[in-house]
Amino acid sequence: MKTVREEILDATIHVFNKKGMKFTMDDVAKELGMSKKTIYTVFADKQELVYDMVDYCFDSIKESEARVMRNAGLTTLEKIQGIMGVLPDGYKDIDFSQLYILKDKYPRIYSRVEERLESGWDSTMELFQRGMDEGVIRRVDKAIVKVMFEATLEQFFRRDVLVKNNISYSDALAEVVDIICNGIKGA
Amino acid sequence: MKTVREEILDATIHVFNKKGMKFTMDDVAKELGMSKKTIYTVFADKQELVYDMVDYCFDSIKESEARVMRNAGLTTLEKIQGIMGVLPDGYKDIDFSQLYILKDKYPRIYSRVEERLESGWDSTMELFQRGMDEGVIRRVDKAIVKVMFEATLEQFFRRDVLVKNNISYSDALAEVVDIICNGIKGA
DNA sequence: AAGAAACTGATTTAATCAAATTAGTTTCCA
DNA sequence: TGGAAACTAATTTGATTAAATCAGTTTCTT
Hints:
Two copies of one chain form a homodimer.
Chain A: H1 4-19, H2 25-32, H3 36-42, H4 46-70, H5 76-93, H6 96-99, H7 107-119, H8 122-134, H9 142-158, H10 161-165, H11 169-184
Chain A binds a DNA duplex through helix 2 and helix 3.
């Protein structure tokens, strides 16, 4: 059973993805068939709502991630592959490029997004390090791998490359993870 | 000996990189120690100047590229590696993200940039195809490799990732080409 | 022939202010 | 308790116009 809080957050994600950051509180209320009054009993203001929406999304990524990390049956390389596969599943929920526009208006939310985008890579970075120590992946610059991956995903969302080339998102993602993992694998 | 035309184009690149698309004709004239009058004897208007500047840059990429293609001593994979190395050398000359802002004001130049960015991949795409036919690289989606590479370079220029991580552009480029080439290499 | 500088019409930018929208609150009602 | 709708103060949007900038031309000079 979903809590009221979660219902509101889900609705917020929905209208956010439809209208970007200029969604209104009325939009959320209408989406829910709920009065604004009720929303305001749960969230103090719009800022808090968006802030919590961000955390809500990242938490779900983190959870899938933890599941991969915890799986003892996987090798380090398989874990890297697994995590790179779930990471963007979370990105799918929200159009983060929209969130970047908040820089001026909601600096607190903006820096929260950056913070979580950054810390979202913590486990992956650790895995890279472990892989290099174990010798299963080559000594590469972790920051570069990160940029490659993030930049590519960003393009998938922003431009219409996938539509134009008639490639599904999951196929594209699998291919990218595959190329990167093979590219960093020890010789 | 450089022609007047080339001198003007070089100066244009210079001021363009300093001030973006809002460089003025006076800027170019001052940079050259030349009167605007003289510039206008060579180029009909600003639009033509920028248009030719774009071609000028891409032509120099194409030239280095042809040199690699023509080198019979290289294997297909080495050629791919070589071409991916020179392609961005040309990007270094110009901040193409600036050019993308022209969409509305100079649609003719904008579409020229797109056209040449696109056709700049022609030889690389052919090489990918040849490599797959020869079996030296895996069957990958060429469009995805292209997105990965382009997106990554774009980030190198746009964000300050390289500065922040204290990596030189050429080291970063070499690493990216390396990862991609290893990532697509046949097993 | 080419630079320096002044000039003009067109475009860009900036400032201003009115109109519309919206966050958050309150009132009334089921 | 919670929805519907009205309300207010604040913000955002949009239109208008004045000021500044700039592309392209002309004049005068060496």
